[in-house]
Every structure is written in structure tokens, then in C-alpha cells.
């Protein structure tokens, strides 16, 4: 599903955030990306949905090489990739339903399909009863659930999550992880999650890729966090 081959990323200030990355992630895998601050995790994640472009190398997502993709083609490829951010990025003047539906409206999905699919994913994340509320009327955990629903509404094969529990309390974080687990297990969606949450990584075991200095220093099935917080 995802393949990086000899990927380098050097920023204009001279910082090397990716120093020859090689990795394969299979369909249906759940992968944590861990490492100290400034290690290159965010760059690793952002290159997977072409928020950042590698200096050299190849990055394939579902068979498309993002490294050679023309800028005008990026929005079409992103329709196959769901992205969940730490700060939710919801549209404040739209209701829960409208925020999720918007992702389908931009690809001009039929109105009947939008209604049925949005209802389905809101039910999956436990927010069907709050579809008419605005983001400001929701808790942080509920806003993140809306963000997750929006990320999967177009049935992406991959969901990229960048610190999705970073702004949430521990109890709420566990609830969000249960949502990701259901998406992975019930829908078969590949999930790649950058996180600093040691407890979650150590208790909900999945593959762990550790990055330091732009290098993959550890890649373990059912690994542990491995860093002090």
C-alpha cells in the first residue's frame, strides 16, 4: 500500500529530515511512527500525503509515485488518502454533518450517496445523534471523531494520522484509539499514526517504526514506544 525507496528530504535551511528511507507498509496494516521531537516523524508523515515533497527518491501510495506527481494531480490522489490532524481542522460554521459531507461534495458525489454515507460514518464514530451540532458545541474528543469521520467518508485505502490524541486527555484518547481500531479491523483501512503517546503504543500493540535523525532506527511488529516522555 505504501512504499518508500531511497527517500531523502533536505530543507532550505540545511536540515536533513529524511536520510535514505526505505519502508514498505502492506494493505490493512496499523503502524505507529515514533521518535523524539525533531527526528523527522512529521516529514515522514507529510510526505505520504504530499504535504511535503522529497528531495529525491520514490514514494508510492496505492501504486502512485507521489514524488513525481504534478501539483495539479495532488488533490485527486489525496481523495484516496484520509488525513487526521492534531488540531481537527474542522470548518467552524458548518455542522457535524456538513463538515463530513463537504469531503464528498468536493468530488461531486450524488446527494443520495452523501446522505447515506455521512450517516453511516457518523454512526461508526458514535456521533449520529450530534449531526446538527456545530464544532464549538462539541468536546475535543467529539471534534476529533468528526475529523476521523471526514477522513474516511470517501472510503480511502489509507488513513494518515498526525498526533491525533495530542490535544486530548487520556480517557478521551482511548476512545479515539477504539475508533481507529474499528476502522482498521472492520473496514480494512491501512492506518499510519505518528504519536508521542507511550501508553497507547505499549498497550495497543501494532507495528512500530522509530525515526531518529531522519533514519529508521527500529521497525518491529507489535513493538513498544521505547522512549522516555
TrEMBL record:
Cross-referenced PROSITE patterns: ABC_TRANSPORTER_1, ABC_TRANSPORTER_2
GO BP term (any one): cell division
Gene Ontology CC terms: plasma membrane
Entry-linked SMART domains: AAA
Localization: Cell membrane
Superkingdom of origin: Bacteria
Family: Belongs to the ABC transporter superfamily.
Subunit (UniProt): Homodimer. Forms a membrane-associated complex with FtsX.
Record-given protein name: Cell division ATP-binding protein FtsE
Biological source species: Bhargavaea cecembensis DSE10
Amino acid at each position: 500500500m505504501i512504499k518508500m525507496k531511497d527517500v531523502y528530504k533536505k530543507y532550505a535551511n540545511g536540515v536533513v529530515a529524511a536520510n535514505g528511507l526505505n519502508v514498505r507498509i502492506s494493505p490493512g496494516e496499523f503502524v505507529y511512527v515514533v521518535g523524539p521531537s525533531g527526528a523527522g516523524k512529521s516529514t515522514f508523515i507529510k510526505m505520504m500525503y504530499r504535504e511535503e515533497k522529497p528531495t529525491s527518491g520514490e514514494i508510492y501510495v496505492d501504486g502512485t509515485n507521489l514524488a513525481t506527481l504534478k501539483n495539479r494531480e495532488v488533490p485527486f490522489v489525496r481523495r484516496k488518502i484520509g488525513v487526521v490532524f492534531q488540531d481537527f481542522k474542522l470548518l467552524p460554521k458548518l455542522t457535524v454533518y456538513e463538515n463530513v459531507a463537504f469531503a464528498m461534495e468536493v468530488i461531486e458525489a450524488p446527494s443520495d450517496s452523501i446522505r447515506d454515507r455521512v450517516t453511516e460514518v457518523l454512526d461508526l464514530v458514535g456521533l449520529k445523534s450530534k449531526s446538527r451540532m456545530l464544532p464549538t458545541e462539541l468536546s475535543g474528543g467529539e471534534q476529533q471523531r468528526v475529523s476521523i469521520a471526514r477522513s474516511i467518508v470517501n472510503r480511502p485505502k489509507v488513513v494518515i494520522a498526525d498526533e491525533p490524541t495530542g490535544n486530548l486527555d487520556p480517557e478521551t484518547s482511548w476512545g479515539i484509539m477504539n475508533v481507529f481500531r474499528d476502522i482498521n479491523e472492520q473496514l480494512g483501512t491501512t492506518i499510519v499514526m505518528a504519536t508521542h503517546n507511550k501508553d497507547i503504543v505499549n498497550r495497543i500493540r501494532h507495528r512500530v517504526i522509530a525515526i531518529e535523525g531522519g533514519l529508521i532506527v527500529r521497525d518491529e511488529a507489535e513493538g513498544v514506544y521505547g522512549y522516555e516522555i
